[in-house]
Structure formats: structure tokens, C-alpha cells
Amino acid sequence: MSNRDNPAFLFVHGAWHGAWTWNKVIPLLAQAGYASIAIDLPRDGLNAKFPAAFHQRPIDPEAYGGEPSPIAASSQDDANAAALAALDQAAALGNGKVVLVGHSLGGTTITHVAEQAPGKLHAVVYLSAVLLPNGVTPGEMLFSEPMSTSLVPSLLLADPEVIGALRIDPLSSDPDYAATAKQAFYADVDDATVRATMKLLSCDEPASVLGVPSPVTAENFGSVSRHYIRLTQDLAVTLAAQDAAIAEIDAAMPNQTVVHTMERSHSPFLSDPGGLADILAKTAA
Q: Cα separation of 34 and 278, whole Å?
């Protein structure tokens, strides 16, 4: 089957990441006959902005923890608009339908898109991602009991209410901090790749997105085929939180989530791109 006969993929990255997240997966899907687009959200990747204190090394903890974020005003609506525009571009690459994939916090954006444009979707796929019933916010999930063992909160270096962002330091020279970041995001990725990847991360995600309630309805979101890829070794979005998300959305929606499992950490697009591409191709079949 050629690309034109198949749905195309649209990829949305997680917090602090960018379109590069999917660089190892997209060529494998192309070999299987699927075209793909990956986007930078308006606050990440090539759109990232850094506080001045980020560039002063070694970091001054007080300055870094107090400087307002240059992306604090970036909103969930901004992210939704970028993804909706890319949805039409992706649809034009295939049979008019799109498999929409979100990783981690990117699950928030794909949920909004699926609610707003269900007719354009072949399926929606959550890769260890935020998935919430109507009215629940990402912040409520991130600070829930199933997430209590997540390593991510220990990486935050500023009060989100003060600077308007969730701030990490991907270039930290503190060996303990760097080790925790690797365990959280890339526990099963080789060290050389981790070092290269850390240079690509942004440092801020807008705190406001954690307060935006899930918009899902049975009529719209519930009409789209929904998949969840569980990552059993994930220390960022814990397995308990992933399973709770699946259970809660299935209780609220008329359709059930198709569940896939990988014995992987938070970033299988780096540690096992072939295995991830195989599962993604199944969601498009």
C-alpha cells in the first residue's frame, strides 16, 4: 500500500521536548507505507525561549528560580491551534484520515484536537500520556496518588506560580540531578544519546496548561478509536498513573481503549524505535 492509501501520522511531543522526538520513528513508518508530520509546539523545539539565567553557567539557583518565564503566556489554546493546523497538513499526505499520537504531556493537546476534530481522525494514540475524563486537569493527574513516585517533581527548580512555568535544567552540571533526569526520561537509553538529547530540551513549560480541564465528550472524543501504549518502566508518568488514566477514561466513554504494552522507560522513541513503530503501524491498520 502506498502512503496515499493509508492514514498519515501526526506526532505531538511531551513537555520540554520537540519534533525531533520522533526522528527515529518517522523513517520506519515511511518504510511501512505511512507518511508522518511531527510538530514543535509553540513553546518548544525551535520555538523554545530561555530565561537569561539559563545561559549563566554555573547556574545561580536564586536567579534561575526567580526569573519569570519567557513562555509563561503560551497557552493550551496556542498548542491546540498549532496541532489543528498540522492535522490538515497530515491529512493531505495520506487518505484524508490521521493517526494522532501524543507523548506524555502531549496527551493533553491530542485530547483537545480529538474533541474538536474527531471526523479527521483514524485513531488517537497516547504514549504514556496524559489522558483525562471531562473536567479533570493535567495538574490533578500529575499530583495524584498514582503519580506519587514520579521523579519529575524532584527536577523542578522554581515555583511554577512565581515564574509561570515548570522549569528544569537539562544542562545541569550536578551529577545527582543529571542522573535523576536520565532515570525519569531516558533510563534505558544509552548515555551518548542521553547527552545529545539533553542539549535539545527546553527548560520551561507553561504552568497554565496544568489548569485547563479536559474537554472530552462521548459524542466527539468518544467516537474516535483510542489506543494507549503503556510503558512499564516509566518513572516520569508512572505505570500506576497510566493504568488509572485508562480505567477512568474507559468508565466515562462509550468506547474502550485498545491497550498496548512496552517493557520500556519513558522514551521508547529513542530506546526502541522499531518496537514503537510496529505498534503504531497496527493502530493505523
A: 12
Which grid cell is 3?
502512503
Place of cell 531516558: 186
**Nearest-angstrom CA–CA distance, 181 and 207:** 19
Sequence-distant (≥ 6) Cβ neighbours of residue 31 within 8 angstroms: none
3-state secondary structure 31-57: HCCCCEEEECCCCCHHHCCCCHHHHCC
Which residues, 6+ apart, have CB-to-CB distance to 278 below 8 Å?
Answer: none
Q: What is the pLDDT of residues 72-125, one digit of tens each?
A: 999 999 999 999 999 999 999 999 999 999 999 999 999 999 999 999 999 999
C-alpha cell at 157: 527548580
| CA-based nearest residue to 43, from 20, 21, 70 | 70
Strand arrangement, sheet containing 8-12: 36-39, 8-12, 98-103, 121-127, 226-231, 258-262
Domain CATH number, residue 268: 3.40.50.1820
pLDDT at 1 over 80: no
Using alpha carbons only, how large is the chain's radius of gyration in Å?
Answer: 18
Distances from the Cα of 118 to the Cαs of 137, 193, 220, in angstroms? 21, 36, 6
pTM over 0.90: yes
State how far the Cα of 193 lies from the Cα of 125, in Å rounded to an integer: 25
Per the structure, how many domains does the chain have? 1
Residue 256: domain span: 3-284
CA distances from 273 to 129, 185, 258 (A): 17, 15, 20
